[in-house]
Amino acid sequence: MPTAKIRITLKPTVLDAQGAVVARALQSLGFEEVQGVRMGKYIEVELEEGGDTQARVDEMCRQLLANPVIEDYRIELE
User: Within a 10 A sphere around the Cβ of 25, how many other Cβ atoms?
Assistant: First the structure.
């Protein structure tokens, strides 16, 4: 059974407010070397065999899993 591993991140031009909060929290905990944090999502989807798996997962990302206006995504099939 193939598994699609999907990593979704904000596009570089989009302000990552959650990442900024985490960066400040890490700095306040003594991790002064932290200069920035970008947050994202990780999703695993188990699929049935057959068909054009890459194209189907890409369609899933474009229709539901990611917001292509502000997010980029990478798909890895196993």
Answer: 12
List, for residues 54-64, the tens digit of each pLDDT value: 999 999 999 99
- For the chain, what are the domain ranges? 3-77
pTM of the model: 0.87
77 and 7 Cβ atoms separated by less than 8 Å: no
Closest CA to 1 of 44, 43, 49, 45: 49
Residue 23, token pair as written in the block: 């960066």
pLDDT in tens, 12-43: 999 999 999 999 999 999 999 999 999 999 99
In terms of Cβ atoms closer than 10 Å to its own Cβ (0-12, 13-18, 19+), residue 40 is middle
Under CATH, which architecture does the 3-77 domain have?
A: 2-Layer Sandwich (3.30)
